[in-house]
Amino acid sequence: MAMNVSFFLLILTLFALAFLTKWNQHVLIMLAVTTCLWAAMVWFVLEITKVQTRPDNMPLSGDLLPASEPDPKPETEIQTEAEGRKDR
Question: Which residue stretches, if any, does this entry annotate as coiled coil (predicted)?
């Protein structure tokens, strides 16, 4: 919603600026680019919404569980690393 309001106000401002500058081509190009960007953003948001609501994209029940933490290093490796630091 905020994106649509922001783009609408930007386009309205650029339209007023184009009118005040007697339809300057640079302002008209900015107006066209802004309109295309707004359309692309709306399309992108709609596509993401479609993908997120598809049932085949829902995570499996096992995917919702937290991953188990990796096993810590065996004590022998920890002692070896500590001894290696003492030698330095």
Answer: none
Q: Using one digit for the tens of pLDDT, what is the confidence trace for 12-58?
A: 999 999 999 999 999 999 999 999 999 999 999 999 998 888 877 77
SS (H, E, C) 2-47: HHHHHHHHHHHHHHHHHHHCCCCHHHHHHHHHHHHHHHHHHHHHHH
d(CA 14, CA 20): 10
Tell me, rounded to whole angstroms, the distance of Cα 61 from its chain centroid: 26
CB 15: neighbour CB atoms within 10 A?
14
For the chain, the C-alpha Rg in angstroms (whole number) is 29
